[in-house]
Specification:
Helix content is 76%, strand content 0%. Helix 4 packs antiparallel against helix 5, helix 5 runs antiparallel to helix 6 and helix 6 packs antiparallel against helix 7.
């Protein structure tokens, strides 16, 4: 018990000593010493200590040989602390200030990487995802053979997958809402919104693994839309639904929804032959 108490006291004294030293460095006007201390904190993974020092040094060291290293270490420290929004802005500042600097390529990559790390799950707004895609594309355009090329390309695939899943969730929501808001007699409903959303997604991402899932939503929505239509629109919409079902069976002959498509075709024919 006493041994543990001594250890705790020793750690407290050590921490207090370190804190006092850090405060002295932070308040010091010996900027060379502050710079070396900040580098040591960064090298030892003490990013929360490094950030305040580097924020101070970025301004003080502007125009010196150490300026770009301070800015890059600041950006990387923010990234390691998972302050991704701040990191992306600092990496961007570095790249804009030193486009030919020693760390320009990595700064360009980490603009995208920081945005990527902060992207939300697919059900949420994907504005950050779009920004991350643009950043990685910029990196690949400027550094087509860059050292982080493979990672950047993989990140692009992952981010595009997140966008397509967002579109799928949107289309599915429209389908589930059905005629809850509006109907065919007053200018459209959620089935039409589902069809438009799904078809646009398939045009934008034709090779998505969710292609069949989108096709199912389009097929079902067109059939439901036909059923709910006013009389003057029913024949055309049943014909559209029937064509969609045939196209679906042709593209996905082994689909779990083939039986559904065949039932829809029978119902469509029953109406269009009247």
């Amino acid at each position: 018990m006493k041994k543990n108490l001594f250890i705790v006291i020793a750690l407290l004294l050590l921490f207090t000593g370190c804190a006092q030293e850090y405060n002295r460095v932070y308040k010091s006007t010996n900027y060379s010493y502050k710079y070396e201390f900040a580098k040591e904190c960064f090298a030892n993974g003490k990013y929360s200590f490094a950030v305040p020092l580097l924020q101070d040094l970025v301004t003080i060291q502007k125009g010196t040989d150490n300026a770009q290293e301070c800015l890059y270490m600041l950006a990387m420290s923010e990234y390691r602390l998972k302050d991704y929004e701040a990191a992306s802005e600092t990496f961007k500042k570095y790249y804009q200030t030193y486009p030919n600097g020693d760390y320009a390529e990595m700064a360009s990559f980490y603009i995208g990487q920081s945005l990527y790390a902060g992207t939300p799950e697919p059900r949420l707004d994907q504005t950050p995802t779009v920004a991350a895609i643009a950043a990685f594309q910029d990196y690949l355009d400027v550094y087509p053979d860059g050292k982080m090329k493979g990672t950047a390309q993989q990140r692009l695939f992952e981010l595009q997958d997140k966008l397509i899943r967002k579109e799928f969730l949107n289309a599915k929501l429209y389908y589930n809402l059905g005629s809850y808001f509006g109907n065919c007699t007053n200018g459209g409903n959620n089935y039409e919104a589902c069809i438009i959303t799904a078809e646009n997604a398939l045009n934008d991402f034709p090779y998505t693994p969710l292609r069949e899932d989108f096709a199912i939503l389009v097929m079902k929505s067109k059939f439901e839309l036909a059923q709910m239509s006013v009389e003057k629109k029913k024949i055309q919409r049943y014909q559209d639904a029937e064509d969609e079902c045939y196209g679906f069976i042709n593209e996905y002959p082994d689909s779990k929804e083939r039986e559904t498509a065949e039932k829809y075709i029978e119902k469509c024919k029953a109406y269009t032959k009247e």
